[in-house]
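Reproducibility note. Readers wishing to regenerate the assembly model reported in the main text can use the exact inputs given here. Chain order matters: entities are listed in the order in which they were concatenated for prediction.
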Amino acid sequence: MIGVFSIATVIALALQTTITRFLPFAVLMPNLVLVLAVNLGLRYYGAGAALMAFGIGYATDAFSGGLLGLNALLFSLVFILTYGMSRSLLSSTTAIGVIAVFAGVIFIDLGNELAGADLAPRASLGPAMPAILIQAAITALSAPPVFALTAGTARLVGLRQRGLRE
Amino acid sequence: MKSSFLWRNRVLLTTGTLLILALHLLSSGVRPGARASKPALALIELLRPFQTFVAGVTGESSGFVHDYFELVGVRRENADLRRQLAEFESQRARMQELESENRRLADLLELRDVLATRAVAVNVIGSDPNALSRTLIVGQGSRSGLRRDMAVISNEGVVGKLMVVAPDAARVLLIDDHNSALDAIDQRSRARGIVAGVIDDGLTMKYVDRSEDLRPGDRIVTSGMDGIFPRGLLVGEVGRVSQEGPGLFLNVEVLPAVDFRKLEQLLVLTQKPPELQLEGQN
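Running the prediction on these inputs yields the following structure tokens for the assembly.
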């Protein structure tokens, strides 16, 4: 599982850090690494999945302008919240994943912005909200194909994942 | 074993431990230089070939897509002619790209001569994965003589400074990031302030006294007082000036001179401004 998600993380980060430059607005690029973290919380119930979610956050930190460890913290929280939601609902459908991805993007972006503003909610956070919501929607739309792709790859390499009910 | 408390709660316990580790990283990340940790540098190095490849493919493919749409009609009439024309158009697009790159590099070379300082030309290979952060990744690092906190400029003006430097790649903190700040002056009125990025894209000039006479269109240049940027580099021009609220300072919007989305070749100043070096020696 760690191998598959490590490769997926490298590909997702390579796409996010290069394609964004050619888009008119950075928010049009879906946060693919977050989709991977949600996927882990939704369908992989093990300590390795928690470790991988932390690793995805740390890798994002390595390429991001924020504080080192911030995304590692936020991605781990997204993972554990998705894991908790999936367990309490006894379900790991794509619809739940899409909702978790939408909420996750808002959580990650707000977390990054608040940390950048020394944890003080500022008036200037208001104008950033439409951009955050647009990216959350685009990322949520991109989640089903990413889920399907990782599930397909997992099946291909004989990886055990939690039952899918799409 | 599997029924034990530890096994049943392994995900929660692992995540809890990792959250504590992340908080520790966060607290140590405040220290200067702590960002350039070895695993983070290794990750930047690991991804560099992918980024260089994807950046190259994406840059070239835009030319091919353009050619394709132009040649749809010709393909119906004559397949051979279309192939020849496609090759020609492709070559022409590549030549135009080379010519454009040559022009940009010549401009940078001219700028380096004007500044009379040592500098290294670098290529942009990536950007920040976080949509609301403003950093760029360049394809040269410490092996090319780059160091942390070196100034990064383009022929249009100030771009930012080096934040993390790996052996063959480096990350640039752009001046429009909300974590960025640089000392600047208004070229006409000589009013001094700190130019910083704002979350909703753009720049603002902070701590400008209300009594100062700033006008829209004034050019904002670096003051040279921060020890990173040489004096007199163009930052942007004043967009809007207002005196809202009871504060002591003016609200100054600055329109950046550089289009941060279109950066391809940049210049890293590997030598500090001469006057500040002298100050440091004294």
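We highlight two features of this model. Residues 275-282 of chain B have pLDDT under 50 and may be disordered. Chain B touches chain A through 56 residues (CB under 8 Å).
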